[in-house]
Every structure is written in structure tokens, then in C-alpha cells.
Design a protein that fits this description.
single chain; 393 residues; alpha+beta; four-stranded mixed β-sheet; four-stranded antiparallel β-sheet; 8 strands; binds flavin-adenine dinucleotide
Length: 393
């Protein structure tokens, strides 16, 4: 029997679909109405796109809207939806929540993540982009790299160094930066697929109002962890229906191409079983998060997803045979969505990035080793001294 909360959500979705038929309503208008009805993230507070209910009920909303042919906000603004929104919800002031969440959800304002730098990727806490206070503003100088969708973003989540004399994890502060501000320069970086989903971003004397700071001065690392935890879940933690997604594509291809040999069938089935194990692990992790006991599951789920995805698409290329070598065009494009691959060949090439983006598989294994298995960690000599005295590349 439906709980009262579930019934409330079902009633609200019913009203939304009745008053905003997704077949005739513009996606942005529909998403705005969804936000106003508290159905953007049901666990967010009322007035900020939510109803203050358990996050589990979001699935009720999403399933009903997808079934009715409604728009999917996570595809339009993958970084904003997956990482920006939970970070603003956890760390933002009332005013910041009011300002950022609605246009983020409708896709009017796309977000990007300004963490990685040429000398700080896996070790992002080594970052060197400086923010110096000037009255009610901060002046930012430095460079970020691999910034997905920076070329279409309105806002960037920036972690910067505000006190170089503190140990590296302590002297950072987190800002929301206007990507259209003077002094922000975005240059495309091309990927193996031919697309430039990501960019280099240069900051030259960019002025950021203090009102756009998320969290306290010096608390940037803690706020960044909220973003990173959500990133891993956003990349690897999606629970799709059994047998769907990449493994579903491989099974379809195997059938279509008429493969009959036992060796290929065995490989396909092994991957299918593995995909199901990853799916169930993610389901369990999602339940744990809902009960408020998030652990390192986001990292282990991301690791399993990345390695599996690469092997599934490798098999797809073999199933395609020589067709696997056909590639439409290497003309550079700058897509306005990330991780969208229209062909299997492109999906295969794109999947190579899965074990790098959002933290490499080696780093995920370190987390698994240290936090789940309790193995001794890396020897770290850079945790105590001031950041300014730590040698850097
Ligand atoms: C498609 C894509 C999109 C991305 N989008 C964004 C984005 O939007 N915003 C953003 O900020 N970043 C983004 N990134 C960057 C990504 O987070 C980094 O590439 C990643 O964290 C690795 O950092 P790095 O490239 O500097 O490699 P490095 O950290 O230099 O690592 C090099 C190699 O050394 C290994 N290694 C490093 N440290 C250790 C260790 N302690 N133990 C064992 N092995 C180690 C790594 O696993 C890797 O194999 C994106 C990357 C990709 C591929």
C-alpha cells in the first residue's frame, strides 16, 4: 500500500502531467513547473525544488515523467544536476539556493566543475589557482583543465587556494564563478572521439563576489568532497533496469549479427552477470545512502562501472567486426551535452575516459583498499607542511 508521502508525490506528479502535457509543453517550461511543484529533488527543502521527503520517492517522479515522455534534466546539465545541485543544497545559503537551483534544474544555466589543474588531478588538493580577497570580492588567477562543458556553462564550481601558508587541505575556498565574467577564457581540448567535450579554463584577475562563496573561507576541501562524492555516484551509481544500458546494446548486437559460437556467448554472458552484479551493488549503495549511511560505495561503484563499461564496448567492437573501424567523422565538434555517444564506435572510444574522469581507477582502488579493506595507506609527506613549501610539478 502506498505510504502517505508516496501518495502525495503521486498526486503531485499527476497534477503536473495534467496541467503540463509534456508532449506540448516546452521542456524548460515543464521543468520549471516540476521544480515549483517540489518534484525536482523531493528530498530538498520546500521552496527549493523539493518537498522535504525521503530521496527514494524521486524514483516515483522520474519514472512517471519519463513514461509520459517528459524531459530529463540530468542529460541537459549533467554536472549541475549530479554535482552542483547537491553541493548548493548542502552548503549554500538560502539566498544561494534561491538563486542557483531553479535555472540549474531547467537547464537555463549549465554548470561545470573547475577542480583539475595541470599539476593537480588525482591529487586535487595540490591545486594552485589563487583567490585573493579584495574587500567584498576575490581576485582569481590560475588555470583549470579538463573542464567538461565549460564552453556552454554559466556557472563553474571553483576550488581555489586562499591561504598558501596553511597545509594543502586547509587553505582552500570554494566559489561559484560566473563563466561569463571578464578574465575567464575557455579553450577547447579535443578527446579521442574527435569531440571537445572538455576545455582548458584560464583565469586572469577574475573578480568573484564574496556572496558567491560556498562554505566558509578555508573550508574548500570539505565542500569539494561533497561535490566529489556526488560525482562518483553521478558517473557510476545510476541503477538502470536489468539488462539495459551498454550490456543491453551488446546483447542486441550479438543477436543482430547472428553470432553462434560458444566462446563469444560465454564472454557475453560473463559480462552480463558482471553487469547485473554491478547493478545490484549500486542498488544496495543507493539504499544505504537513503538510510543516511553513505560510505565508500560511490567510489567502488564508479570503479566497477568504469572497468566493466570499457570491456563491454570492447566486446561490441569485436561483435561489429570490420564495421567497428568505420567512424563517421573526426571533425572537431563542441557538444552541449557530455557523455552522449550516438554510435557504438564513438561509445567505445568515449568509454576509455571512464576510468580517468571523476577519479581514476587506481585512486578508486586506493579508496577501496584503505577505507573498505583497512590496508595501510600511501606514505604521505605533504599533509602537514604549508602548501607553499610542498614541492610541486
Ligand atoms: C572525459 C573527462 C572529463 C573530465 N571532466 C572534468 C571536469 O569537468 N572537471 C574537472 O575538474 N576535471 C575533469 N576531468 C579530470 C579528471 O578528474 C582527472 O583527469 C583525473 O582526476 C586524473 O587526474 P590527472 O589527469 O591529472 O592524472 P594524474 O593524477 O596525473 O594521474 C596520472 C596517472 O597516475 C595514477 N596515479 C596518480 N596518483 C596515484 C596514486 N596515489 N596511486 C596510484 N596511482 C596514482 C593515475 O591513476 C593515473 O593513471 C575529466 C577527465 C576526463 C578524462
Amino acid at each position: 500500500m502506498a505510504t502517505t508521502d508516496e501518495q502525495l508525490v503521486r498526486d503531485r506528479v499527476g497534477d503536473l502531467l495534467a496541467t503540463h502535457d509534456p508532449k506540448v509543453t516546452k521542456p524548460r517550461e515543464f521543468l520549471g513547473a516540476q521544480f515549483d511543484a517540489g518534484l525536482a529533488w523531493v528530498h530538498f527543502p520546500e521552496g527549493h525544488g523539493g518537498l522535504g521527503l525521503g530521496p527514494k520517492l524521486q524514483r516515483v517522479v522520474n519514472e512517471a515523467i519519463v513514461a509520459a515522455g517528459g524531459p530529463t534534466p540530468w542529460l541537459r546539465n549533467i554536472i549541475g544536476y549530479g554535482m552542483g545541485a547537491p553541493t548548493v543544497a548542502a552548503e549554500g545559503t538560502e539566498e544561494q539556493k534561491r538563486r542557483y537551483l531553479r535555472p540549474l534544474f531547467t537547464g537555463e544555466e549549465v554548470w561545470c566543475q573547475l577542480f583539475s589543474e595541470p599539476g593537480a588531478g588525482s591529487d586535487v588538493a595540490a591545486l594552485a589557482t589563487r583567490a585573493v580577497r579584495d574587500g567584498e570580492e576575490w581576485i582569481v588567477n590560475g588555470q583549470k583543465v579538463w573542464t567538461t562543458l565549460a564552453h556552454v556553462a554559466k556557472w563553474g564550481m571553483l576550488v581555489s587556494r586562499t591561504d598558501p601558508e596553511q597545509p594543502k587541505h586547509k587553505g582552500m575556498t570554494y566559489f561559484v564563478v560566473d563563466m561569463e565574467a571578464p578574465g575567464v577564457e575557455v579553450k577547447p581540448l579535443r578527446q579521442i572521439t574527435g569531440d571537445a567535450e572538455f576545455n582548458e579554463v584560464f583565469f586572469t584577475d577574475v573578480r568573484v563576489p564574496d556572496a558567491q562563496r560556498l562554505g566558509d573561507v578555508g573550508e574548500g576541501w570539505r565542500v569539494a568532497l561533497t561535490t566529489l562524492m556526488n560525482e562518483r555516484v553521478a558517473i557510476g551509481g545510476t541503477v538502470q533496469p536489468r539488462g539495459s544500458g551498454p550490456i543491453g546494446e551488446a546483447v542486441k548486437l550479438w543477436r543482430e549479427k547472428g553470432w553462434t559460437g560458444p566462446a563469444v556467448r560465454d564472454r557475453l554472458l560473463s559480462l552480463w552477470v558482471e553487469a547485473e552484479a554491478v547493478r545490484l551493488t549500486n542498488l544496495r549503495a543507493a539504499e544505504n545512502r537513503r538510510r543516511g549511511t553513505p560510505g565508500p560505495e560511490g567510489s567502488t561503484g564508479k570503479l566497477a562501472f568504469a572497468e566493466l563499461n570499457k570491456r563491454v564496448y570492447e566486446l561490441c567492437m569485436e561483435l561489429l567486426g570490420s564495421e567497428g573501424m568505420l567512424y563517421g567523422s573526426y571533425e572537431m565538434t563542441r557538444p552541449d551535452i557530455a557523455m552522449g555517444s550516438p554510435t557504438l564506435q564513438q561509445a567505445f572510444l568515449r568509454s576509455r575516459a571512464n576510468s580517468i574522469e571523476g577519479g581514476t581507477s587506481e585512486i578508486m582502488r586506493n579508496i577501496l583498499g584503505e577505507r573498505v579493506l583497512g590496508l595501510p595507506g600511501d606514505v604521505r609527506v605533504d599533509l602537514e607542511p604549508p602548501w607553499s613549501q610542498v614541492p610541486r610539478s
